[in-house]
Amino acid sequence: MVALASRGSSFNWLVPIRAAADTRGAARLVFAVAMTAACGCVQSGVTGPASKPVVEFPSATALATVAATPAVIPSSPDGEVPADGWQTALTDTASGPDEAWSPQGPWEKAMADDVASTRAQLRLTRAMSCVAHELGRYYLASGAPAPETLHQFMLAACGAVIPQAGTSWIAGEISAKVTDEQILQQHRAGLKDDLLRHVPDTATEAGFWFGRSDKKVVAILAFGKPTARFTNLSLVPDAAGDAVIEGELDRPADAIFGWANQGTYGVEACAMDPSVARPRFRAVCHMATDDATAWVQLLYNPPRRYLSTPFVQLLLRRPERPLTFPPSPATGERTVASAAQLPGAMLDELNKVRARAGLRPVTLSNAESATAGRLVNQYFTASRTNGQEETVDRIALGLMAGWNTNGMIRDGQFLSRMTSRSHDVGRWLEIALASPFSRATLLSIDIDEIAVGATFVSESGGLAALVTGYRYYHGNDHGDDVRRIYARLVNARKRLGLKPLLRLAGMREVMDGQLSLVQGGRVHASTALRTSLQEGTARFGAGMRGYVIETLSLDALEIPEEVLRRPDLYVEVAVTHYKPPGAAWAQLVILVLFADQPGGAGGQLI
Q1: Per-residue model confidence as pLDDT tens digits over 18-38
Q2: Are residues 242 and 117 in the same domain?
Q3: Among residues 52, 203, 380, 527, which one has the fewest Cβ atoms lying within 10 Å of its Cβ?
Q4: Alpha carbon 539 to chain centroid distance?
Q5: What is the model's pLDDT at position 334?
């Protein structure tokens, strides 16, 4: 008799439990609460309703209640990244997540039969089979599960674009004299009882691998659940370095956005097509010329849930270059004696990296760091516990609120990361910065201040940290915001084959004047819209329509299709910010005006 032990793991699909670098705590507020439409046929003197905060953040008192709850961070039995790194053979990878899998050998055929007869909703794919193969290959070499960072690389290298995957497996030691067929005969029932029973009903795709080395043997099933269907997805960029990711989420979203790594420390926002209405999306992500591979992450904001959820995580690659995961950064470069020293040490290491990237240094919010330090155990415990999404949200949002900061916050981004087997701050940072989201948080050109809450994880010998980055408003120049909106409009109309848009001559000054009154608290945003519409109607002798949008981020801006697809589009955009009473952050006010009867409107080509 051959004795094999079984092990399974599954995930709560609502909380990103296992994700690259920061998706467990990817937090970015992009939800727009108000989009008011109007026409130019209104009476003067109309006053609109007062604006409210886009987001009502958890209070400092609510955070203190969470901090008073005892919590111990669960440990992980993961192995270490090999000293010489890890390489995935291109011949084993899939061209995309939907490529079919053809079982080979008795074990794979047996698993395919069991899936077809008992779990018909599971689709066996080449990408997930590659993941199972890589995870199994690591286990045979090390006797332990792959560490989280390497696990994420294997997923992406294999062509699986989901940000997390579960595994179930059976493993043990055997004599070299026992054949694969004999092992299968003795453990045939175990494929169902010890592997498939660990797969949640929500999983929709899977892959399987059986392997042996010396006396070790492992049969492993990798499974996952994509949340999007793709109509266009390429892991290899075109000649210009652009990769198109197009599809539809299987759930509603208030915003969809993404980033792609550029070089050693750079990151660039993916261009999101504003003509594609959510939950559909079309992202164009750029890969730098000299990069052999580049991480890409797409995230979305569920309705009324302000923390972002990753739904695409992929690795762009050059077809002629190997897929290699580097060895772990050298340990011991920056270790500290106590958790109290971690925030300062992390700030120092971050500013060293920012200097190498040509970025100005950031400062540390001591007050916010102290709050984060009281919540780090509770956060990581909740993020690894089913049913604790509300606690995760409360902590992340409460820290992003920045109640103890001194500036007018434009926005904040939050990330979490836990490493094992090292207290090295430099290693923590290098691992975190593999993620585009982390780079967008920590290596933003205009981030002003960070808060760090960190602790040692005693059982795994690791380091867990929460980092919040804050950007503040300095003056009222929103020229870059306006240019970004116009660029999105121009690119969308060009792709649709429509004529270039024209701007409403002279209206920018009118709209800016109205928005200055909004910022000063003298009029409401809806009043500024109506006044601007009246002026446009009087000036051009044409019907005017418009929108006012209040939001925390331009990423939440979706241009109505009726506007974007007009054969002749005369449009003007203006942006400001202000802080409503009781708000933690300032928020954007965006005015969009367009001529309803363009024949009579004066315009200038953009």
Answers
A1: 222 333 445 544 333 333 444
A2: no
A3: 52
A4: 45
A5: 74
Edge-to-edge strand ranges of the sheet holding 4-9: 4-9, 166-173, 216-224, 205-213, 123-124
138 pLDDT exceeds 90?
A: yes
Contact 257, 552 (CB under 8 A): no
Q: What is the mean pLDDT of residues 296-305?
A: 86
Which residues sit opposite 419 in a β-bridge?
463
DSSP element (H, E) containing 55: none
| CATH number of the domain that residue 498 is part of | 3.40.33
In a domain, 304, yes or no: yes
Q: Residue 458 falls within a domain, yes or no?
A: yes
Residue 17 lies in a domain: no
Domain that holds residue 299: 228-325
Give the H/E segment covering residue 343: helix 342-356
Structural domain ending residue among the three candidates 157, 189, 224: 224
Q: Which of 272, 298, 325 is the C-terminal boundary of a domain? A: 325
Quick one: tokens of 574? 């203006």
Domain CATH code at residue 464: 3.40.33.10
Q: Tell whether pTM > 0.85.
A: no
What Rg, from alpha-carbon coordinates, does the chain have?
26
**What is the β-pairing status of strands 570-578 and 502-504?**
parallel
Q: Which one, of 325, 320, 371, lies nearest residue 90 by Cα?
A: 320
